[in-house]
Description:
The protein is mainly beta and about 750 residues long. It is about 10% helix and about 25% strand. It has one domain: TolB, C-terminal domain (Neuraminidase, 6 Propeller). The longest helix is centred in the N-terminal third of the chain and has 16 residues, at about 25-40. About 55% of the residues are buried. Bound molecules: MU-OXO-diiron and calcium ion (3 copies). MU-OXO-diiron binds near residues 1, 169, 281, 392 and 507.
Amino acid sequence: MNKPKDLPLTAIDADDIGHNNSSNTDFSxxxxxxxxxxxxxxxxxxxxxxxLFGSIGLSACGGGSDVVSSTPAPxxxxxxxxxxxxxxxxxxxxxxxxVVPAGYTASVIYALGDPLAAAxxxxxxxxxxxDFENRAGDHHDGMEWFGLGADGKPSAxxxxxxxxxxxxxxxxxxxxxxxxxxxxxxxxxxPRPVVETDKEVAIHGVSFVExxxxxxxxxxxxxxxxxxxxxxxxxxxxxxxxxxxxxxxxKYSATGTKTRGTxxxxxxxxxxxxxxxxxxxxxxxxxxxxAGDIANRGGDTAKGNVSLRxxxxxxxxxxxxxxxxxxxxxxxxxxxxxxDKYARWNxxxxxxxxxxxxxxxxxxFGYIVEIDAYDKTKLAKKRTGLGRFAHESxxxxxxxxxxxxxxxxxxxxxxxxxxxxxxxxxxxxxxANPADRMVTGDKYLDNGKLYVAKFDxxxxxQWLELSxxxxxxxxxxxxxxxxxGDVVVNARLAADAAGATKMDRPEWCSVxxxxxxxxxxxxxxxxxxxxxxSSSQFAPDSANPRVYxxxxxxxxxxxxxxxxxxxxxxxxxAGSAATSFTWDVYLFGAESIADTGKINLSSLTxxxxxxxxxxxxxxxxxxxxxxxxxxxxxxxxxxCMMLAGLPGQVxxxxxxxxxxxxxxxSQLNVDTYVGKAPTADTLKRFLVGPKAxxxxxxxxxxxxxxxxxxxxxxxxxxxxxxxxDPTKYTSKWPSNAGYGLGQRPRSATIVITxxxxxxxxx
Length: 762
Ligand code: FEO
Ligand code: CA
Ligand code: CA
Ligand code: CA
């Protein structure tokens, strides 16, 4: 989520802020690695290098002179018979509407506040509504499809009835309050009223809603027995290696085995056994610390403070504050009253022991959470082994009988990392339809290894295991890990110790079903600099190679990598369990008019140009790579959008060296690997959203003939003081599309169908 830049810091989402001040790979190290390898080649070690790179399939990477290859490129996967991307590309748009290609229809079916329970009244959309535990939450985000047969049982083939499992990431705020949720825009000073706080808490979390096609038209089913909300107050179990760890002990759970709720749910995933995975992203922003809490916990080098600082919960991350100041929360919920459900948002050390307060509460968020979409009686589980960080999506490898399952994940903040989980147990197809889905989750998601990615300048990379037995982690001077539970709870610190590569904000990842390659949206990083001047800036490296200046409007300059890129990885021969990979950049975001030598490296045309990729989902039906933007850089020209790509494979392009001139006149050369430039037949803009929104989340019916997409926070730039005057709303969608009461903008799910009944994207 990109927030306007003029907000007070307490109101800014933390995903645009970096907290990674570790000394991991900067450009000089990559440069040295590259030089030393060249020296090795010059020195006659070519055969050794050839053997190495041949064995890990480097043939796909590059075409540069120092690439040694003996492996033929794999065949391009066969496409379905119909012409995919046969539609006419949609132009960039600043209209307050959803634009899709001719021949397609987009319909709103499920918006903020829509009643889930039969007894809950229709949404007035004027700030008077209550009972949000039985309504759609706000800021619709990641979303997955769970088919239902006519018998009401789970179905892998149903195309006209199913459940949508959906994240409700956040709410539209300017200062403290959720401005569209309250009659007058809400209270923008502390303390926050109980009534406002209770509504704001309840619109976070996850919803499950039944949808069906009746008489040719999709609708959601009010009163369905399957409809369900998970909120930040719903009881959730811990599972995996950190369950019961002292770091998870709170006043709520003296055994460290459970917590309440999930928050800032961003990307999603769907397990091969049919459950929902939801990622907890900017959780740190919801909590507060009292003034003096750093000193109270033993000062800057105390473990608890090191951890809180690395996860962004430090007053110095907020403008103008010192270590002695309080750390402020986004909404001030901790001030609503003495009740435990408000007190838990203050993570200060107050009592004598961790069972007396919520000093550890921040450790209970930041996980991949598994939920059984079909069974309300099953408690959700936080899968701690998959690490604690600002999670986006969780993408499974293509399951292979007798091979481990891999789950790919990203940590969305500036300079954070890319991760992989590998199950100990090998996949068996018999588990695709298990008697107990959550027990199957225990099997594959509680025992395994967590890895973090290191990208090298030669187009290869390594998965570094985050294990307490790794000497770099066990002996890390910054933070003394107690056990493997500590390693996963403080995965960012372990990844620092292991030497991971700092990325340009990893958002969604998805696996290409045609060849198993893994795609990561790296949304942007405005802190890349040729010569970093502080620990919060990052030098360019091969996997994050661009530093440039973009102009927004007539005068605003945006530096670093404001438009983002999409990286892709190909695992070495061991597949899901591989510890090395090759990589390249599928696409670089850019304006079509930008310099194709330095910025628009993928030569995007005006039908293809985009900025800040975020959502990214491969269709299992068509193989189309759908990606979506959450942008603040190109929004002077266009609202956020969704594009359809038919990508090739890692290594189908060429090596490119980007040269930067430093202040002293010397050159900084960065090698990168640019995927084959798209053509008019392989990349097209498919959708542009209404004003001040983000496009996110995508799922489809198994026949590919209906896709569901979320429009998040239309009109998010509206000011709290203007809530009483609809003429000042920066968007009136979806009421201006004929959906619902009132004129306040609402996050909503749309369904897209093709008028001739064909598959979406054809
Ligand atoms: Fe919730 Fe990183 O987007
Ligand atoms: Ca957003
Ligand atoms: Ca621009
Ligand atoms: Ca996102």
